[in-house]
Each structure stands twice: as structure tokens, then as C-alpha cells.
Amino acid sequence: MNKQVSLSLFAGVLATGAIVAFQPSANAASFSFSASDAVNAGCVGQTNCNVNGFFSIGASTTRNAFDPVLTQKTVGGVLGIGIDSSKDANGNPAGETVNNQSLGEIDIDETLSVGFKSAGVLKALDLSFLYRPGVYNDGVFEVALVQADGGIGSGTLRVTSANSAVWSLGGTVTNLSLSSKDAGGSYRITNPFGDIKITGFSLKALAQTAPTSTTTPAGAKNSDFTLSRVEVTKVPEPTTVIGLGLVGLLAASRRRKAAKAN
Q: Which of 122, 124, 126, 125 is nearest to 195 (CA)?
């Protein structure tokens, strides 16, 4: 085989490898779970739970020494997963009817964590029961804090009207159910952290000052919300696919040496 043909073959194999390497998104796998999936998985009443074979969710609090449990709540036809961290005299979940806490939502001293089986891109996140002052006795424009695992970043979703909310990192926020009485106050954040791969995230409610005063309303009058849906895309590592091009190059080299020997 002459030098010119050999170089052509080398370029062709590299080109093939490059084409494959830059097409991993075509093989991306999508994983998701909704609040109803978590309910069907038996998560309600548990502190930690696995959902759909890819996600793990857990509840924690700074309020008590005992473990909180995951709860379900429906408003305006929207189902959400929240936390109950209160106990009755017998040590059973009290439905947060004490201490002026919201019923089954994520309060300012509670954390709902979501972990992934492997790293992926958070494509969509649905949060619900976010309202403005005056709705369901709320005293503030409610705010949800989303923190990516590994210290990669965090952002806040703040409701701004009956049908809008703002994600602090930019991007697209879609209203799924109005922030009005008898509606779900539900919003979808698309690509909350862009295309950065994460292994999970946590949800917390941020305490806010009432817009008409300098006071911070307590309990259910402040920020609280639930999780309704998560969607993650897992993309194959490019280096894994580039290896196909290198294997082809090695095979071509061996064939060239065999031809010279003959």
C-alpha cells in the first residue's frame, strides 16, 4: 500500500471516529418520575425511597431529632410530594397540624433530596403550590431553592404573579397551573442548570419578608411547596465512543502491515 493511500485510510478512519464521537446525544437515555410514581412506589410515610430504578428521594429536617417522612398532597388537581416532620404524642406523623406548619409541603426548615443512579442532565423540574400573598393565607411571594449536588450551583424559583415565576439562573419557566386559590401553583423549569451533569439535587423553601412590612411571616404563611416531576437525560461519555474510531485505525494499520509482508 503506498503512502498516499495509507494517509487517505488514516483520515477516513479518524473522520468516522469523529462523527461517532460528536453524536452521543442521539443515544441519550431519558429517566423521569412524577409525584404519582413516588406514591405508587410506596414512598409516602417513608424517610427514604427509590423510584423507577433510577431515583432516590429522601426527607430531612433541622427542626427535630427524629426522622421526617415523605407526604403527598393534591391541590387544584395537582399532586405533589412534600415532607411531614411533626409527631403526635405517640410518636406518629401528625400531619404538621402543630407549630403552624404547612400541611405536607416542604417548609423552610425541611429538605427534600433527589439522587440519580448515575450522573445526568436535569432537563425539567416541576414544583407546585407556589403562591403569591393572599392566596391560602400566604404572606409572601413564595420562593423555592434548588441546590445541585457537589456544590455545582444553586438557583431560586420565585413566583411573581398568578401565572408567572422567575428562575434566578435564567432559562425557561412554564406555568402549568395558576398560583390562585383552588389551583396548583405549578411551574416547570427547563434545563435548570443548563447542560451540566449532576448526580442529584435538593429542595428547600426560603424564608421571605412580607411585602407590606418588615416582618417575616411564620409557618404556612411563608415559603412552602412540593415536588411534582423530575426529568433527567443521561448522555454516554464521548471518550467511550471515540474508542470506536481508534479501534478502526488500529485494525487498518494491522492490515497494512500484513499487505507489506505479503
A: 122
